[in-house]
């Protein structure tokens, strides 16, 4: 697909199985998006993104790229996929054309004039030896890219693969079929990462946070993580997609800007988004607060704005379940700086109760409520955490923060 040889190229963008509009690219490599006329006529149709309200006018590259680029893998996954396909890793349009058939949320991206009813979605059941082969080759060939009938995409930098559980069997979605789970293999650089994520997600659930279901499985003796997708539900008609987007997409911020210190969203803006769009803002504000504070306590320094999402279920918008919760401080080579500041601090070692009060004021929250929630989460973690390689460092952080709160209250 050589863009330089054509005046214009278009892709059809579907939302909830309905043609929502067309994504185009011109000879300069600039993308644009416009909603389809028929889609505009039905007032019940959802916008693709909070940052792309339904309108007749065309959205420019600057306006539409944050959402569409946010559907794609990042870092080495993006590089490896582009290399396998023989395209530039900077070419969002070509990547979406190649792998955009099964994306996060209810989005499907297809070649123009491809009828969705022609797709004949299906599943390829994979047995133990097939799973093992996928695990061993995923780093070089993410998303099983290039195999006929497979067009899968997920955002993020970790190796991962959308899969489905069909009658108890692991399966690869084919020809636009929806997935139900996300499979993550052992990370080459951090071999305990999947166990870490599984442990932290299950700890979050155990203390009452709305986190995704996650479990370690094995192909022979090789472990992998299976995470249940919150944007898929099983109905009598089969697996249904629910639309979702991460906070960066909703705010119109490109994935490269996901960290606050690089110009990305700060905590107060995340709360502002929930106030603006949530169907139950009081409930979701408390949920978001708990998720942010939990990440601080466990040492998840990669809790940036792409690791929080909105879930659209019919006309209702809610904070999505938490995902990608990892105690990154377990790995000394990873950054000690938090992805978003708490008050004026990026560094846990410099974090004291006054910084949580500052965070509360910036986010228009009660300082007393935030401080109380910190202590509440510390207590729950201390009571519910189980033995693991990650337990010690989490408890050390929880105790250190508790002591700082105790000292402040005694002064």
Automatic annotation (TrEMBL):
Domain HipA N-terminal subdomain: 11-109
Alphabetical keyword list: Kinase, Transferase
GO cellular component, one term: cytosol
Domain (HipA-like C-terminal) ranges: 152-385
One GO MF term attached to the UniProt entry: protein serine/threonine kinase activity
Record-linked PANTHER family: SERINE/THREONINE-PROTEIN KINASE TOXIN HIPA (PTHR37419), SERINE_THREONINE-PROTEIN KINASE TOXIN HIPA (PTHR37419:SF1)
Annotated family: Belongs to the HipA Ser/Thr kinase family.
Protein name: HipA protein, DNA binding regulator
Species, as recorded: Legionella spiritensis
């Amino acid at each position: 697909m050589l863009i330089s040889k054509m005046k214009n190229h278009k892709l059809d963008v579907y939302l909830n199985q309905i043609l929502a509009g067309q994504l185009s690219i011109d000879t300069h490599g600039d993308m644009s998006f416009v909603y389809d006329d028929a889609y505009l006529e039905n007032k019940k149709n959802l916008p693709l993104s909070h940052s792309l309200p339904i309108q007749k006018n065309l959205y420019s590259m600057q306006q539409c790229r944050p959402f569409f680029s946010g559907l794609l893998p990042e870092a080495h996954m993006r590089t490896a996929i582009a290399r396998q396909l023989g395209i530039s890793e900077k070419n969002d349009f070509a990547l979406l054309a190649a792998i955009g058939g099964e994306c996060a949320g209810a989005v499907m991206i297809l070649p123009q004039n491809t009828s969705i009813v022609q797709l004949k979605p299906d599943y390829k059941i994979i047995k133990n030896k097939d799973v093992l082969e996928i695990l061993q080759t995923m780093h070089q060939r993410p998303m099983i890219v290039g195999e006929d009938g497979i067009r899968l995409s997920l955002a993020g930098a970790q190796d991962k693969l959308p899969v489905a559980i069909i009658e108890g069997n692991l399966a690869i979605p084919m020809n636009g079929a929806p997935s139900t789970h996300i499979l993550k293999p052992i990370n080459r650089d951090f071999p305990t990462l999947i166990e870490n994520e599984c442990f932290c997600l299950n700890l979050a659930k155990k203390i009452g946070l709305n986190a995704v279901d996650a479990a370690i499985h094995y192909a022979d003796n090789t472990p992998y993580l299976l995470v249940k997708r919150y944007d898929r539900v099983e109905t009598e008609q089969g697996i249904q997609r629910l639309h979702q987007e991460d906070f960066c997409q909703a705010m119109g911020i490109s994935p490269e800007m996901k960290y606050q210190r690089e110009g990305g969203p700060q905590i107060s803006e995340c709360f502002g988004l929930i106030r603006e769009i949530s169907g139950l803002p009081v409930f979701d504000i408390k949920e978001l607060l708990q998720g942010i504070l939990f990440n601080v306590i466990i040492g998840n320094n990669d809790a940036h704005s792409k690791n929080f999402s909105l879930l659209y279920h019919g006309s209702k918008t809610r904070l999505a379940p938490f995902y990608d919760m990892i105690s990154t401080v377990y790995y000394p080579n990873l950054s000690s700086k938090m992805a978003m500041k708490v008050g004026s601090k990026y560094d846990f070692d410099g974090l004291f109760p006054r910084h949580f009060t500052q965070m509360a004021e910036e986010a228009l929250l009660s300082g007393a409520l935030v401080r109380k929630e910190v202590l509440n989460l510390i207590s729950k973690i201390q009571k519910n955490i189980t033995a693991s390689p990650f337990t010690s460092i989490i408890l050390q952080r929880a105790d250190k923060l508790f002591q700082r709160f105790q000292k402040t209250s005694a002064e």
